[in-house]
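Quick log. Single chain, no ligands specified.
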Amino acid sequence: MTPAALQWIERFGRHLRHERNLSGHTASGYDHELEALVAWCDTQQLDDWPHIDSQHLRMFAARSHAGGLAPRSVQRRLSAVRSFFRYLIREQVVTSNPAAEVRAPKVKRGLPGTLDVDQVGRLLDIAVTDPLSARDRALMELFYSSGLRLAELAALDLGDVDLAEQLVRVTGKGRKTRIVPVGRLAREAITRWLQDRGQLAKTDQTALFVARNGRRLSPRAIQARVGYWARRQGLPVHVHPHLFRHSFASHLLESSQDLRGVQELLGHADIATTQVYTHLDFQHLARIYDKAHPRAHRKGRPGRTADTPPLTAPTPSQSQDETPDDTGTPVLRPGPPESRKTRA
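-> predicted structure:
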């Protein structure tokens, strides 16, 4: 690519950050995908954007997939390329979008994993014995109580949480702000953490959650702490921060059946993204049917009758660091889980 062509990638990056208000992390993701496109174009002697057509991009997608990139990653790469060419059309650099009709390999859409209510209770039932355990319990309670994304929780400042009003102000994707309720146990855990926060935080630090060095707790460190407590509490599954969000949505939808309400709480722009949780709820109902309905069993042992088709959920709509950052936390034994109702 010529230097003049490469400058359009820099301008596109500024467009993403300043006009579309995307986070630095998201904009860097676009940069990474476009760097891959430039590297491939160089191997094909393509030196300017108007020279690229849809056949070139089909070859680029196929080569990316053949090189080991998963279908979902190829999808993300093509999405970045489409956005870039839309920008070039706006700037009158090209007249059409060659990526518009290029499709990635089909992605097998899996349902998000969740913790059941007892597992959530077991994970959050940790004894608070020092500032680190107070902090960790507060952030995990808040994850589950309010369904926050990892980046949203890591970015919280002290002024974003109003315990008196039982609300937290969250800045989500696209720097969109939403207000989310905070449950009783999460409020109690945050109150307990705030009593100890001054022992760790630097005097000018505004972050709600801080590390032992007094600075804002990073997303990577939060991941490590969640994994640390999941292992300590003996959970039989891999636990990551987004699992709290999945569990929050699934449990709330199961109880309320209010898809629009769950969409608002999660901050989803498209309700199709939220609809995946209706399929989790369908699976839950199918399991209850299998266990409880008299005609869902063969005579003499559990299971379906030979002529009874299985219940299946409809296809969903498309739409670690192993070492924790703080290692001085004591060994704890899991206690009895609380019911979901007590976590409100």
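Residues 298-325, 327-342 have pLDDT under 50 and may be disordered.
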